[in-house]
Each structure stands twice: as structure tokens, then as C-alpha cells.
Design a protein that fits this description.
The protein is mostly helical. The chain has a domain of 143 residues. Helices cover 84% and strands 0% of the residues. The longest helix is centred in the last third of the chain and has 44 residues. It is elongated and about 145 Å long.
């Protein structure tokens, strides 16, 4: 009895202690829930003056960016100055290595123009290495044929044109066409006075003769530079054509991993479009020059091979190149007779219409169509910035920008 009573007494004592502890815990938690706010808690008006950085960077408000810029002017000024300095360094480098940049650009566009031929041979079952070797061999044969055949003939005709220019001019001034023109507008006296003043200035001014000899020296260096440029462009074109897939794959790897499929698709579209345009424009230019050469041989125009070379170069310039070549050749044909100039002009105008409505649409069907107004602006801007090469590559560059606008900028704007 005594042992059981003592055990019950101890159990009731422990239960009272536990109950007291539970009451104390409830009292402590209730006191914390009703505790006053800290004295140093930021007031509501002060919190509004401190903009918080949002969690999502894409939805960063302009107020936060502006406050960050104002709070860190030295940081902003440093990066702005660095960007301007980098742009000036790049511009200085390009302005001082203009010839090299032109050679590299020409080689890239030649490689892109030859790439459709490689893809065509590859589609026929030929390995890419064999396709590249075949296309490169054909390209080297064309370049060698041009150097062996065209360069001596064109050079001989250029020398003949310079030597025979006084007699040719005198023959033109005594022709029936110019005689009738002089009877109506009295232009013979102006031409005679202009020629006399030119030769008098040439013989009396010593600076002119020194400038002439300096021009001969610079002409020799120009010829050497042209030969070096042709060699470098040929080697770079072969290299770019052989390693074009590797270059494109490395370019795609520079993009983030999540964007690489999209960047690869855009790269393929741009290179395919530019390659189709360059190959098509080269074919159109060759057809234009061949037709002009045939017509000049038929009508017995002076210096036909030399003029055909000018037509070939100008025909690479879209829209205005063919018309400019026709006007230039017609003016030269006036030296022979006005009938020769008229016959050539009529034949070439007819060919330009056939080229515009039949030949070019079929050849350029796989290239990106550039609106006429944009094409004119691009050619004018390219010619002003980089001469003939700039005018030639202006349309492919504009086509590439159109692809980027259509595939990147417009979808982004449509999602907004």
C-alpha cells in the first residue's frame, strides 16, 4: 500500500510540471505575436525611395536601369568610352587595310558563288572532296584561260587605243556625223580650243610632266598589286570553298547552346541565298559580255575585246551596270560612225529587255528577291563606301539583312 501510494504521488507531480511547462510555452508565443514593431524598421515612404532589383532580368523596369546608371556614373562612362574606342580602332584598321579587306571579301563571295556547284555535284553522289576538287579545277582553268588569252589581247588593244587616240579623234572630228553636228551647234571651235589649251598646259607646266612620270611609276605598282590581288583572291577562294562547312560550324558554336539550331538555320539560309545570287549574277554578266562581244564584232566596233571586258565588269553591278555599259560602248562606237553606235545600242537594248524579263527571273529564282528601291539604295551606298566592289556586293548584303529582318525581327515584333 505504501509503495503504490508513493508511485501515484510521483506521477501526479510530474503531470503538473508538464502542464505548467505547456502553459508557459503558450504564454510565450502569444506574447511574441503581440510584440511591437522594431524601432529601426524602414518606414513606408523611405522604402519607396529604394528601388528593388526585380527577380526576372527581362522585365527590368526602366526606373531601375536609370537609377543604376545614375548611381554608377564612373562604371557607365568607362564602358561607354571603351565601346567608342573599340569602334574607332576597328574603323582605323579597316581604313588602313582596305586592299586586304577587299581581297578577303571578294574571296568569300567567290567561294559562296561556287558552293552551289559543289552542292549540285554532291547531290549527284560525288563525295564533297571530289566535288570541291572538280569545281576548283574548272575555276582555275577559267582563270588561266582569262590570263593567257584575254590579258594579252586586252593589253594590246589598250596600248593601241592610247597610241591611236589622236588619229581616231581627228577622224571623228572630220566625219559626216560630227560635221552636221558642228553646223547646228558650232562645237568644233570649243573642242579645238580645249585641245590647244591642254597641250599648252602640258608643255609649259613642269609639275604636269613630273606627275606624268610619277603616274607611270604608280601604274607599275598598280599592275603588280593587281597581280598579287588576283593570286591572293584565288588562293583564299579555294581555301574558303574547301573549308566552308567547318567555318560555318565554328561560327554556329559561338552562339549559346540553346540558340544554335536557330543560328544554324539562319546561317544556311543566308549562305545559300548569297551563293545563288553570286552564281546567278556571274552567269548573267558572262552572257551580257558575250552578247556584246558578238555584236561588236559584227558591227566592227573598235577594240571589241577591251570593251567586252568593261561590259563584263559593269554587268556585275545590278540594275545600272548593263545600261551604263551600253551607253559607254555606244559612245566609243561613235568614233567609227553613228550607224555603228546606233546598231549596237538597239541590239543591246533588246538584249537588256530579254535579260530583265526572261534570263534573270529564271536564273535568280532561288535567290532572295530584293525590292527595286532598296536595291538602288544599296548599290548607291555600296559604291559610295567601297567603289565597284561595294556596288557588286551591295545586293547580297541587302538580301542577307532582309533574311534577318524576316526571320528574326518580324517574329519578335509579332509576339509582342
Amino acid at each position: 500500500m505504501n509503495a503504490g501510494a508513493s508511485f501515484r504521488k510521483k506521477g501526479s507531480h510530474i503531470a503538473r510540471k508538464v502542464k505548467n511547462k505547456v502553459k508557459e510555452g503558450h504564454a510565450h508565443r502569444s506574447s511574441l505575436s503581440h510584440a511591437p514593431e522594431p524601432r529601426f524598421a524602414p518606414q513606408e515612404e523611405h522604402a519607396q525611395l529604394l528601388p528593388e532589383k526585380p527577380e526576372n532580368l527581362e522585365s527590368t523596369p526602366r526606373e531601375y536601369i536609370a537609377s543604376s546608371t545614375i548611381a554608377n556614373p564612373f562604371y557607365f562612362g568607362f564602358w561607354a568610352t571603351s565601346g567608342v574606342s573599340a569602334a574607332l580602332i576597328i574603323w582605323f584598321a579597316f581604313s588602313n587595310i582596305g586592299a586586304l579587306a577587299g581581297w578577303v571579301t571578294g574571296a568569300v563571295f567567290i567561294a559562296l558563288g561556287l558552293e552551289p556547284l559543289v552542292q549540285r555535284l554532291t547531290a549527284w553522289g560525288l563525295p564533297r572532296l571530289a566535288s570541291v576538287a572538280t569545281v576548283v579545277g574548272a575555276f582555275l582553268l577559267v582563270v588561266a584561260g582569262f590570263i593567257v588569252y584575254a590579258v594579252p589581247v586586252v593589253g594590246k588593244q589598250a596600248v593601241s587605243f592610247i597610241n591611236d587616240f589622236p588619229d581616231t579623234l581627228e577622224t571623228f572630228l572630220n566625219s559626216d556625223f560630227f560635221t552636221r553636228l558642228d553646223q547646228q551647234f558650232q562645237v568644233r571651235s570649243y573642242i579645238d580650243n580645249g585641245v590647244q589649251d591642254f597641250f599648252a598646259h602640258l608643255t609649259q607646266d613642269s609639275n604636269v610632266m613630273s606627275g606624268f612620270f610619277n603616274g607611270l611609276i604608280s601604274a607599275g605598282s598598280t599592275i603588280a598589286e593587281i597581280g598579287t590581288g588576283i593570286l591572293i583572291v584565288t588562293i583564299l577562294s579555294i581555301y574558303f570553298l574547301a573549308s566552308l562547312p567547318i567555318i560555318k560550324s565554328w561560327g554556329v558554336r559561338l552562339a549559346p547552346a540553346s540558340r544554335r539550331p536557330r543560328v544554324k538555320d539562319l546561317t544556311e539560309k543566308i549562305t545559300h541565298s548569297v551563293g545563288q545570287y553570286v552564281a546567278g549574277q556571274a552567269l548573267v554578266a558572262v552572257l551580257n559580255a558575250s552578247f556584246a562581244l558578238i555584236v561588236m564584232l559584227i558591227v566592227q566596233a573598235p577594240f571589241p575585246q577591251l570593251l567586252a571586258l568593261f561590259v563584263l565588269i559593269l554587268a556585275f553591278i545590278p540594275l545600272v551596270g548593263g545600261v551604263t555599259a551600253m551607253i559607254f560602248v555606244s559612245l566609243v562606237c561613235l568614233v567609227v560612225s553613228w550607224k555603228t553606235a546606233l546598231l549596237f545600242a538597239i541590239c543591246h537594248i533588246i538584249y537588256l529587255q530579254i535579260e530583265a524579263y526572261l534570263i534573270s527571273p529564271r536564273i535568280m529564282s532561288k535567290a532572295v528577291a530584293v525590292p527595286g528601291g532598296l536595291a538602288i539604295i544599296a548599290v548607291a551606298a555600296g559604291g559610295a563606301l567601297w567603289g565597284v566592289l561595294g556596288a557588286i556586293i551591295a545586293i547580297p548584303v541587302a538580301a542577307s539583312l532582309l533574311i534577318l529582318v524576316r526571320e528574326v525581327f518580324i517574329p519578335v515584333q509579332d509576339r509582342r
